[in-house]
Amino acid sequence: MKVPPDVDPRYQKFLRQHVDADMSVQKCDRAMSIKKITAGTGNDCKEVNTFIQATKDRITTVCGDAGTPVNNLFKSNQPFPVVTCKLKSGNRRPNCQYRGTSSTRYIVLGCDKGWPVHYDEGIIDVNRSG
Questions:
Q1: N or C: which terminal CB in the chain sees fewer CB atoms within 10 Å?
Q2: Secondary structure (DSSP) of 11-42
Q3: According to CATH, what is the number of the domain 7-127?
Q4: Domain map of the chain by residue range?
Q5: Catalytic residue among 75, 118, 124, 125
Q6: Among the options 14, 18, 19, 82, which is catalytic?
Q7: Would you call 51 a catalytic residue per the annotation?
Q8: Residue ranges of the Ribonuclease A-domain domain (predicted)?
Q9: 35 is catalytic
């Protein structure tokens, strides 16, 4: 299945900002810098960014059979491992310094025509430590 042209730019941004199967808490500074993740359109450091540790194909299924619609969003039916990078110092690139934490949570996505284009705040799975 091919991403519709009108959805593709937002899908690509979603992948760049939120999908990294090999992400770890130690990689926050590097990932945020390499992927050029900022707040808005400028060079301001983004306060918090979450990376989902899964393949894009597995994440995309949340917009279909593997997700449950909730208020125009889709909540994953299964928890995903995630790494959350929180700003600890700096306010503009390239001086942003992040602290990473890992957890397991149900992810909540905004989808367009079956493709993820927005990551909403995840719901922590209270049954698993992370």
A1: N
A2: HHHHHHHHB-TT--GGGHHHHHHHTT-BSTTS
A3: 3.10.130.10
A4: 7-127
A5: 118
A6: 18
A7: no
A8: 7-123
A9: no
